[in-house]
Amino acid sequence: MRVVVVGLVALMSIVLGQAAESDEGANAALRAAEDAGSAVPRIALEGVTVTPLVRAEGLYYYPPPGEPLGALVQLFVRNTSTNASAWAGFDEARFNGVYPLNYVLRGDWAWHDTPDIWKDMERKLPPEALSVWTINAVRPTWNDDGDLTATSEDWTRGAMYPMAATVEAPSRWISAVTFLGSDPTPSETVVHVANDAATPMRITGVRLWLPRSDAPPRALFAGD
Fold first, then answer.
1. How far apart are CA 194 and CA 104, in angstroms?
2. CB 221 within 8 A of CB 215
3. Reported pTM
4. What is the 8-class DSSP label of residue 185?
5. pLDDT tens digits for 17-53?
6. CA 74 to CA 42: how far, in whole Å?
7. Among 81-95, 134-148, 174-188, which stretch is predicted with the lowest mean pLDDT?
8. With the C-alpha atoms ordered 190, 196, 202, 203, is the resulting torsion angle positive or negative?
């Protein structure tokens, strides 16, 4: 049996066991020491999720579908700084040097949810917070070379934040999430994890990432 890591879009991340938690504690202490006197944000791409798009079985399509469908691609962008003044701004974003709107207009993407269309307040990322950028790709973006460089420009600081990722067809992904009950803050959820690999998988932990009242609504913070 193989232990794997799976990320849940905008809400939770599934993590490895105790060893990973110990490493994270050491990394947090190191970051705190490095950031003690620095108000400069440190932006990192913490992960990428790829959820394949599917065609409903039993439906008739006209004209018949041609090329394969793409995927919902999500980038998990985090401000790893611990200094309270190290806020980052994502005033505009480009992907492989191209603005998101260009991808939509030429038919590569159906839509996107990235900083270019967010309100000004939503483009600010506090220290230790996570931001989720979403791309709904019409075509399988991994059919080329799979390399993707997302670059965000912070106009206030005059800084650029480049982040490199590889987008590949996944073997495991979170297919659906259902929150149980009508409470605005439900305590139970059902997660459907698809495993298209040849080996079984085991989930060892879950962590929720949620917004806070004292931060922009798109900034998510790790729960206990």
1. 28
2. yes
3. 0.79
4. S
5. 333 344 555 555 555 555 555 788 999 999 999 888 8
6. 20
7. 134-148
8. negative
